[in-house]
Amino acid sequence: MQSKKNSLFVGLLLSVLLSGCATTQEPNPIDPWENWNRKVQYFNDEVDEYAMIPVAKAYRWITPVIIDGAISRVFSNIDDIGVTINTFLQGKFLQSGLDASRFIVNSTVGIAGIIDVASMIDLPKHKEDFGQT
Known about the structure:
By secondary structure, the chain is an all-alpha fold. It has a domain at 65-133. 69% of the residues lie in helices and 0% in strands. It contains 5 helices and no strands. The longest helix has 29 residues, at 34-62. The model has no long low-confidence stretch (mean pLDDT 89).
């Protein structure tokens, strides 16, 4: 029984090692999608220059700082959902509970996060993301 396991192990090891010696085809340097990609890139550049940048500048000019801050806080509140899940998956259960509490407080008392009530009652915002999990 032991010799069968050894033979199987040696066979698998040799097949893995020898597969590294296999030759591969040279990649084709010609991109069959190059023409299409160039047209899409040109379109994206034009839309960015003539539509997106002017809209962003107009938004900055029109929107008062207080409204811009409120919008940022709403998105920060939405981000707390991912932070809560991430801290839970990392095994930081106490911090995950605090992050969930922060989201609940800001979503209810803080009117969907427009007002950051959680920071006022010492529930700090944590920076966690799925790259850490």
